Amino acid sequence: MPYLDGPGRNDESVIHALLLGARAHIYIGTLDEGNVLAERARRLAHDMALPILEGLAYNELGILCFVAADYDGAMAAYEKALQFLEGSDEETGLMKVRLNMANVYHRRTDFIKSVTLYEQVLASAQKLGDEQMQAKVMHNMASFYEHFLNDTEAGIAFFRKSIELYQRAGDVVGLSKAYANLSSQYRTAGDNDKAMELLEQSLAMRKDEGEPDEIMQWYNRYIQCLLYGGEIARARVLVNDVLQRPHAQTDSAGAVYARLANMYVHYFEGNIKDAYEIGLRELVWLEEHDIGDVAVEVRETLAQMLDEAGETALALDMYKRVLEDRMRLSSARAETRLLYMKARFDTDQAAARAEIERLRNVELASAVRRLEESNREKSEYLAFMAHELKGPLSTIRLIASLLSDNVDLSDEHRQDFNKHILQISSRMFDMINTLLDRARTQHPDAEDVGVVDALMVWQHVLKSWHLRAAEKGIVLRVAADRTTYPVRITEQVLVSIIENLVSNAVKFSPASTTVDVDIRTTTHRNDSACLRLSVRDQGPGLTKEDLGRLFEPFRQLSSKPTRGEDSSGLGLYIIKRDIERIGGFITCESTAGEGATFIVDLPLEAAA
């Protein structure tokens, strides 16, 4: 990828591009080239001290090892990935690594560890609402229940749920895999037409783009469906095409599946000699690579060929071996099911004991939680009040500076500035009194509410913000569609709403832009009249991640104030709580790079 080597390319985007390139090589079967790109991404992340990206690079190296059937190498890489990702906010990356580790345990037939990890990842995905990850886990668990616990009913249920989730997530690759695996259920049940229909859908979705071994395996199944459906000529055309593909010439599982498809076609064509030679040769590869289920199927087909060729003694010996292998596999699966049930029983017992212990201490725990919650609310409120006082103090400092530095100011202007200082100081005094009242009552809601004219309160606050916005070269425009807006609320909450929203708009807006404050009446969700306040800026906007955590306490967003102003991360959290307490709503509409609009709806009082 030479285009990544130019000037200015040594950044995170290069690492992401390298990892995407590595994944693409998996899809086309060039694993060595994929390893080169993934290792390059890992070294670059290491040199740039980016631990999360280094962890994701190790995860990609593990996937490459897994596809190459190097399960020890895969597990070593996944364990390295966990070291870098644990303790970070990269929940999706952690889930992927744990899911991949579960797949390794699955292949190693360490099914207890495998299903335990699957269930952990599924719980995390459900908590985060990640439907694509839920689909992947359920897909893998379906295979586990079907093939190793012999619980076909549970397997089908997991497959169907994974298909539903893949469809909602729009994951075509995952959906195609689920269709292909579900087809084996119908094939086992004797519904060859349905199995063939699912495989046709699966192959059409992938358009031969994907892991070559997997695609070859699906073609193998599809060709068998054609043969059992009597379409031998069509099967011959398709197998000839598959055998000409580059991956069919390699020493890989996919190539073996292609040649086994050819064996089945020869067999149905009546060419038993060639079919037998192909099957016997590929059987050695399957046993060397411990692909037991497929090896048993091939051996049984070889026994049928010997029987039809009149080699009764050899066929009998082959059938005996098939029976032994099936008994061995069944015994291993029965043991796995027993171990799994015992592990689940032990887990349930431990959970029951923990629940009993929890119930014994529930009263104490409840008292501790109440104390902690009370302390947390007091701490948050103190932090919020400090945040609220900081804005008015900044305005007073600005006015004092203007009075001091501009000796030519007229008496009229000085009187106007003094009036602003008096209004702001009075508001600060009210805030402190409120804080003292709350401290005395130890209850954050002990406030008297009344009908307040929101426009009058907001006009007083906005007068000072015209000055502060102008200092940054920002124009503050205010529009209202009426002269009074009666709202049942405390004056302090109204002040907090406008202070926070306008303060944030000015903080995050660059010079030579406009902040628009629009106040008007509208219809509430329950068809009642309400006051709608909109504050729109032309700042950097908010990312999807920022919007998701916007109203959480103490959250710092990705964008920074344009002049390095302070931001406690409490203001929006507190005003949202206060707005919702009186039946109002607050939302934000934003696209990264295009500014943000905060919208507040407050119930209007009916006219007297």
Automatic annotation (TrEMBL):
The entry's keywords: Kinase, Phosphoprotein, TPR repeat, Transferase, Two-component regulatory system
Catalytic reaction list: ATP + protein L-histidine = ADP + protein N-phospho-L-histidine
Annotated SMART domains: HATPase_c, HisKA, TPR
Pfam families, per database record: HATPase_c (PF02518), HisKA (PF00512), TPR_12 (PF13424), TPR_7 (PF13176)
Domain Histidine kinase: 384-606
InterPro entries, per database record: HATPase_C_sf, HATPase_dom, His_kinase_dom, HisK_dim/P_dom, HisK_dim/P_sf, Sensor_HK_Regulatory, Sig_transdc_His_kin-like_C, TPR-like_helical_dom_sf
Alphabetical list of CDD domains matching this protein: HisKA
TPR repeats: 55-88, 176-209
Enzyme class of the recorded protein, top EC level: transferase
SUPFAM superfamilies, per the entry: ATPase domain of HSP90 chaperone/DNA topoisomerase II/histidine kinase, Homodimeric domain of signal transducing histidine kinase, TPR-like
EC number: 2.7.13.3
Superkingdom of source: Bacteria
Entry keyword Thylakoid: no
Keyword Phosphoprotein applies: yes
GO molecular function ontology, one term from the record: phosphorelay sensor kinase activity
Protein name: histidine kinase
